[in-house]
UniProtKB/TrEMBL annotation, chains A, B:
<protein>
    <submittedName>
        <fullName>Amidohydrolase</fullName>
    </submittedName>
</protein>
<dbReference type="InterPro" id="IPR036928">
    <property type="entry name" value="AS_sf"/>
</dbReference>
<dbReference type="Pfam" id="PF01425">
    <property type="entry name" value="Amidase"/>
</dbReference>
<dbReference type="InterPro" id="IPR000120">
    <property type="entry name" value="Amidase"/>
</dbReference>
<dbReference type="GO" id="GO:0003824">
    <property type="term" value="F:catalytic activity"/>
</dbReference>
<dbReference type="InterPro" id="IPR023631">
    <property type="entry name" value="Amidase_dom"/>
</dbReference>
<dbReference type="InterPro" id="IPR020556">
    <property type="entry name" value="Amidase_CS"/>
</dbReference>
<feature type="domain" description="Amidase">
    <location>
        <begin position="34"/>
        <end position="440"/>
    </location>
</feature>
Length: 461, 461
C-alpha cells in the first residue's frame, strides 16, 4: 500500500493540496490568481483527452481569483478555501453560469441563482473555475453518456471515469483542481472517486441542502465533496455542510471496524477486495468480518426506489421531448417507468427494516468497510465485464456496493486503495448518520499510515 | 334539523346512551349483565336482516359482563365504558376470538393476542359482544362484498350500509350496541357512519396504535370509534387513544368554520349538501366558503397511494390464492397492482404540498366542513348512481369527500345531518392533526343545538 502515483501528465494540484497551500497563500508566496492560472492551464492542456468539463469559466474564475487575491492582501481571510480553485458538477446551479445537467434539454440554461452549496462555496472564498461533466441528468454510473460525450479516466483514457460525477472526479485526479463538488444518489460521488483514485464523501441524506441541484431521486440525493486527500475533502465538506470551526467535532475514536466481504453483496474482483482489505489493515483497527444480510436486497431496492423517483422527475419531459435524451438514458427511463407502485412500497418497507438492522450493527462496530466498486474502471461503453469468475452487468456492478448505504441515508467515504492493473481501487467506509467527521478522520488516518511506510522518494513514481 | 329517528325495530341502545347509563350502572339500576343480554337479544332479532356481525361471542360476552358486574359490585370502577357492550370490526385481532378480515383466506383464524386497541377496551371494562362485518379486507367503501355477504342499511335493508366498517356502523345505528370500533383508511369509519346515521371519528394518522389490525394501506390506516352520539363517541375515543381523564383538553373554542362546497371536489346531491349545511348552521359559527383547490387531486392521489400500498400487502396472496378473494375485490386488487411507482411518488409529493396548503387554511379557520358522502346510501350492489345531474361511479363517489383528509392524515368526524328521502346524510368536520377533541366537542355542540330546538316529544318520531 502506498499513496497512488498521479496519472501521467497531471496538473499542478496533483502536487499541491489545499492544506499545503494554506500557509503559502497567506505568506504571499502564491496568490489565488496564480492558482487559477494553474488550474486553467491544466484544464486547457488535459481537456482534449479527459473531457472533464462542460463549461470552463475563465473570465469568471479570473475575476473571482482577483477578488480573492485583493481580499487576502487586505487581510480579509475567508478560511481554508479562500482563493482555492474548485470545480462544480453541472447539475448544480451557478448564477450566470450555464448549467446543463449534461443534457441537450438544458444546453443553454443559465440559472439566475446559486444553489445553496454554491453560495457557501463563494462565501468561503472558493474560485469556481467551471462546471464538470456528468452522466446525463446524473442518471448513470458510467459517465459515458452525456450530451457532451464521455469523460475519460485520467489513469487510462480508454477507460470510463465512472459516474455520475465523472468530471468532478477526473478533474481532481488529473490535478486540474484540488477539490470539486459532486452529487451522490446511489454512488455518484463514490464510484467515480474510486475509479479515478481520489477521496469522495457521500454525506448523510439531508446534511447538505439540495436546493438548486437538479434532482435524480429526492429520497436519496446528496451533495458531496471530492479531493485528492481526506484532509482537503474535509475542508470542502465543512463548507458544503455550513459548519463553522466551532462546530467541528473532536477527533473521534474508531476501534472496531466491521468488514463486509463484498461477494456477499455482488461478485467482486479478488484483487480489488485484496487492495481494499490491505488499505484498511493500515489503520490498526480491530477488524471483524460482519454480515449485512439485507445489503444485496438493498442494492435491488435501490433500483426500485430510484427508478420510481427519477421517472416522477422526468415523466413530462419524456412525454414531450424523449428524443432529446441520450438513447440509452431514455431507454433506462422507460424501464424506470415500469416499476410498480407496490414494488416501491415494498422497497421502502425494506429500507425501514434494514435501517434498524444496520443501525444495530453500527452500535457494535464503529464503522463498516468494504470495497467501493467491485471492479476497476471498465472500458468506455462496456456494459458487461468479469468480476473474478463471474460475468457482471457493468451498471449493476458499479452501483452494487455503494447503493445500499444510499438507500439507508448513511454517510460513506471512498479513499484510494492502490492500483489494480494500473487502475485505482477504492476502500469504502460507512458510518452512522451524522458520522462524516468520523469517516474523514479515519480516511486521513489510513492515508497517514500508508504515507509513513513510504520511502522519502517513492520508488514507483 | 333534528336528531334522526331511529331505524324501525331498533334495539335497546337506540334509546340508551353510554353517557345516560353511567349513573344507572353505578346505582345498580341496571347491570353489565342486563346490558349484554339486551345487546345479544337485539343482535339475535336483527341479524337475519342486517348481517352486521361475522361472529357473535355470546359466551365470551356473558363472561365479561359477569366480571364487569362483579367488579362494579365490589367497587372496582374502570371508567365510563365499564360494562358497556362494544362491537369490534373483524379486521382487529381479538385473542381467542375468530378474526376473518371478512375473507375466506382467514375464515378459521383465531388470533392469540389482542390488538392494542382491544387490550385498551378490555382494560376499560368494555364487553366485546362480537366481531362486525367488513368489506373484504376492509378494501372497499360499499360493504357489500365479503365472505359473509353484504351488510344491510338499518334504515332500508335493500340499501348498502357503506364500508368498509359496515357492521360497526349498522350495529350502532340499529341499537345493538351503543358504540363500536371501526377502521378508516379513506373513509371506512365515516362513510358507513354517515350512510347509517351515526357519529364516526377518523383520528389523526398514528393517534391510535394499529398493531394487530390487518393493514389496508399503512400510510393511511387508522382505528376509530362509532357511536350514536358525539358524547359516547368521545368516551370510546379516549379509551382507544389511551388517554386518561387528566390528559383531556379543556373545551376548545371554535369560531370560524370553512365550508367547502362539495361539488368543487365531486358531484354531490343538492339535498345532501343542503342537509349538511343546515346541520352546520345550528352551531352559530362564523361560516365562510373556502376553496381547497388540491382536494379533488387528493381524492385521486388517494387511489394511487392506497392502491400501491394495498397491493404490497396482498401481492403474495394474489399470486397463490387469488380465487379465495371475492371476484370484485380481486379485480380491484389487479387494478391496484398496475399503479406505477412514479405515480405513487408524485401522489406523495402532492400529499406534502397539499398538507402545507391545508394546514395554512386551518390556521385561518378552526375547522373545515363539508358533507361526508355525496349521495345517500345506494342500493346493494349498485355501482353507478346519480348525484344531482351527474352520473357517478358509486365507489369513487363514496370516497371522494372523505379520502382527501385521509391522505393528509387529518382527523375528521361525521355526524348525522338529517334524512334525505328517508336515508341519513352526514356532515363531516375536519380539524388540524391532533384535533379530535375539538371535533367531538363541536359535534356534541351541534347535537345539543338541534336537540334544543326539538319539541319535548318529537313530533316526527
Amino acid at each position: 500500500m502506498s499513496r497512488l502515483p498521479s496519472p501521467a501528465g497531471a496538473g499542478y494540484f496533483a502536487r499541491h493540496t489545499v492544506t499545503g497551500l494554506t500557509g503559502e497563500l497567506r505568506a504571499g508566496r502564491v496568490s489565488p490568481e496564480d492558482l487559477v492560472e494553474q488550474a486553467l492551464a491544466a484544464a486547457a492542456r488535459l481537456e482534449p483527452e479527459l473531457n472533464a468539463f462542460v463549461t470552463l469559466d475563465e473570465d469568471g474564475a479570473r475575476a473571482a481569483a482577483r477578488r480573492a487575491t485583493e481580499e487576502l492582501a487586505a487581510g480579509v481571510d475567508r478560511g481554508p478555501l479562500h482563493g482555492i480553485p474548485v470545480a462544480v458538477k453541472d447539475v448544480v446551479d451557478t448564477a450566470g453560469l450555464r448549467t446543463t445537467m449534461g443534457s441537450r434539454h438544458f444546453a443553454d440554461r443559465v440559472p439566475d441563482r446559486d444553489a445553496t452549496c454554491v453560495r457557501r462555496l463563494r462565501a468561503a472564498g472558493a474560485v469556481i473555475i467551471g462546471k464538470t461533466a456528468t452522466h446525463e441528468f446524473a442518471y448513470g454510473p458510467t459517465g459515458d453518456r452525456a450530451a457532451g460525450g464521455a469523460t475519460r479516466n485520467p489513469y487510462r483514457p480508454e477507460r470510463m471515469a465512472g459516474g455520475s460525477s465523472s468530471g468532478s472526479a477526473a478533474a481532481v485526479a488529473a490535478g486540474v483542481v484540488p477539490v470539486s463538488v459532486g452529487t451522490d444518489t446511489g454512488g455518484s460521488v463514490r464510484i467515480p472517486a474510486a475509479l479515478c483514485g481520489v477521496v469522495g464523501l457521500k454525506p448523510s441524506h439531508g446534511a447538505v441542502p439540495v436546493d438548486g441541484v437538479y434532482p435524480v431521486a429526492p429520497s436519496l440525493d446528496t451533495v458531496g465533496p471530492l479531493a485528492r486527500t481526506a484532509a482537503d475533502c474535509r475542508l470542502l465538506w465543512n463548507v458544503l455542510a455550513g459548519r463553522t470551526a466551532a462546530e467541528r467535532d473532536d477527533a473521534p475514536v474508531v476501534r472496531r471496524v466491521g468488514w463486509i466481504p463484498p461477494d456477499t453483496i455482488h461478485p467482486t474482483s479478488p484483487r480489488v477486495t485484496e487492495a481494499a482489505r490491505a488499505c484498511l489493515a493500515g489503520g490498526g483497527f480491530e477488524v471483524e468480518e460482519v454480515a449485512v444480510p439485507e445489503a444485496a436486497a438493498l442494492a435491488r431496492a435501490y433500483h426500485t426506489i430510484q427508478g420510481s423517483e427519477v421517472y416522477a422527475v422526468h415523466a413530462d419531459r419524456m412525454a414531450t421531448a424523449a428524443d432529446l435524451y441520450d438513447e440509452e438514458v431514455a431507454e433506462r427511463l422507460r424501464g424506470a417507468a415500469r416499476v410498480r407502485g407496490w414494488e416501491y412500497v415494498r422497497a421502502c418497507d425494506l429500507r425501514d427494516r434494514a435501517r434498524e438492522a444496520v443501525t444495530a450493527l453500527l452500535r457494535v462496530h464503529d464503522l463498516l468497510a468494504l470495497p467501493t466498486v467491485p471492479i476497476p474502471a471498465p472500458p468506455l461503453d462496456a456494459r458487461a465485464r468479469r468480476a473474478g469468475d463471474a460475468g457482471v452487468d457493468v451498471r449493476t456492478a458499479l452501483l452494487a456496493l455503494t447503493s445500499p448505504w444510499s438507500v439507508l441515508g448513511l454517510p460513506a467515504v471512498t479513499l484510494p486503495a492502490g492500483l489494480v492493473d494500473g487502475l485505482p481501487a477504492g476502500l469504502q467506509l460507512v458510518a452512522p448518520a451524522g458520522g462524516e467527521e468520523l469517516l474523514l478522520a479515519v480516511a486521513q488516518e489510513l492515508h497517514d499510515a500508508t504515507t509513513e511506510t513510504e520511502p522519502p522518494v517513492p520508488a514507483r513514481h
